[in-house]
Write a structure and sequence with these properties.
94 residues, alpha+beta, 3 helices
């Protein structure tokens, strides 16, 4: 089952690492409060690979990366995540 929602991403710059850490979760559409699982990844190349899987449009990926660079967080609405990626990244809602 595919799930549509908002992909929320936050960037952290840990003091003990030279790589940023990103957390992201899928907040299902139509819910006010979600207990969404959080996935973490380290480094820009890993984030880019994940975004290429989760966001089909290059414009969505570009906007997400620009927001992360400017503010440290991004929200991408109307994202549909296929079942395979939900399982792979543990993003299925609880």
């Amino acid at each position: 089952m595919d799930i549509m929602g908002t992909l929320a991403i936050v960037r952290y710059d840990p003091s003990d690492s030279d790589q940023p850490v990103y957390t992201f979760m899928l907040l299902p559409a139509g819910t006010r409060e979600a207990k969404a699982p959080v996935h973490r990844c380290a480094g820009d190349p890993t984030l880019l690979r994940i975004l290429e899987e989760l966001l089909p449009g290059t414009e969505q990926r570009r906007e997400a990366l620009e927001a992360l660079r400017a503010t440290g967080h991004a929200s991408i609405a109307k994202v549909t995540v296929p079942r395979e990626q939900l399982k792979k990244y543990g993003l299925a809602p609880r």
